[in-house]
Amino acid sequence: MTTTKAELYGVLLDMRETYRAKLEQLENSKQIDAPGTGYSNHQADDATMVYDQTVDASTFNSVKNRLRQIEESIARHEAGTYGICENCGNEIDIARLEALPYTSLCMRCAEVRDYRAGM
Ligand SMILES: [Zn+2]
């Protein structure tokens, strides 16, 4: 049985809730991106603290980015363009969408992008 795009829409809506909750949790747990906290001002003693903040900020950003991808996918669903590669306009393989419902690139374009990003 193959997953349909309609089913993936339901998956995306669930994911959006999950990621919104996650983001809220991160926002409440720590004040990050505080203005004026330049790393250069910190002494060596603060290295651990800086490290922790960096980890938190990157977790926060990756959750935020993922949520944005999910929201964009939901918007594409509503526009009727879900499952179409943003880069080349080809249909994205349904197996890929099952694994990554929020992806906006087909396998080939994603590989090219990752290659360019040095991954
Ligand atoms: Zn493509």
Walk me through this protein's architecture.
This protein is mainly α and 119 residues long. The chain has one domain (5-30, 47-116): Four Helix Bundle (Hemerythrin (Met), subunit A) (Up-down Bundle), CATH 1.20.120.910. The chain has four helices and no strands. Helix 1 (5-29) packs antiparallel against helix 2 (47-79). Bound molecules: zinc ion.
What order do the helices and strands come in, and which of them pair?
Elements lengths: L4 H25 L17 H33 L14 H6 L7 H10 L3
Helix pairs in contact: 1-2
Bound molecules: zinc ion.
Zinc ion binds next to α4.
What's a quick, concise take on this entry?
With 119 residues, this protein is mostly helical.
Name the CATH superfamily classification.
DksA, coiled-coil domain
Largest sheet: none
Beta-strand proportion:
under 5%
Q: Can you list the ligands bound to this structure?
A: zinc ion
Radius of gyration: 18 Å
Structural class: mainly alpha
Query: What is the fold named in CATH at topology level?
Result: Four Helix Bundle (Hemerythrin (Met), subunit A)
Order of helices and strands: HHHH
CATH class: Mainly Alpha
- Helical amount among residues, as a percent range? 55-70%
How many strand elements?
0
- N-to-C span: 33 Å
| Overall geometry | globular
Whole-number total of structural domains: 1
Number of helices: 4
CATH architecture assignment: Up-down Bundle
